[in-house]
Amino acid sequence: MKAPAADYWAMLPAAIAEARRGLSQGGIPIGAAIFNLNRALLGSGHNRRVQNGDPSAHAETDAFRNAGRQRSYRNLIMVTTLAPCWYCSGLIRQFGFGTVVVGESRNFQGGTDWLRALGVNLVDLDSDECASMLAAYIRANPEIWKEDIGEE
């Protein structure tokens, strides 16, 4: 069962708030949130790689940890401000999330095509707010950004 498109837009502010929280802490402004089909927020988080010195502390993994154990992830919705990288795409695949809502994929495409090919309902909202927030960070911090996405 898929949620209506308007519901996806209504879920995005939780991820944006996390991205802004990360930015205010000196980190990369990427946020994520996990919802059930009743639109209840189960957990949210933000990229903490800079703050924690932890290369695995991506927004999606932070939200995943904060949502706690779930019996199944098939009917959960992962909402993220940016297209998930390969690492986070693997998490989405491993645990079988049925729907991923992406705030934007202009700055980074990640594993979007792969997830779609696997049958994940991937919705790209193409949010100007998400795209401009990350683009400004990338301009100001190109080396940290390259590290985050695994580029030399």
Can you offer a commentary on this structure?
This protein has a 5-stranded mixed sheet with strand order 2-1-3-4-5. The mean pLDDT is 95. It contains 7 helices and 5 strands. The chain has 152 residues and is of the alpha/beta class.
Please provide the count of β strands: 5
Main β-sheet, spatial strand arrangement: 2-1-3-4-5
Which stretches are poorly predicted, pLDDT < 50 over at least 5 residues?
none
For the biggest sheet, the summary is: 5 strands, mixed
Strand content: 15-25%
Structural class: alpha/beta
Task: Please give the count of helices.
Answer: 7
Order of helices and strands: HEEHHEHEHEHH
Task: Please give the radius of gyration in angstroms.
Answer: 14 Å
Distance between the termini: 41 Å
Task: Report the average pLDDT across residues.
Answer: 95
Helix content: 40-55%
**General shape:** globular
Q: Could you give a quick summary of the protein structure above?
A:
By secondary structure, the chain is an alpha/beta fold.
Which key terms come to mind for this protein?
alpha/beta, 5 strands
Helix/strand layout:
Blueprint: H1 5-24, E1 31-35, E2 41-46, H2 49-52, H3 59-67, E3 77-80, H4 86-95, E4 99-102, H5 112-117, E5 121-124, H6 128-140, H7 142-148
Parallel strand pairs: 3-4, 4-5
Antiparallel strand pairs: 1-2, 1-3
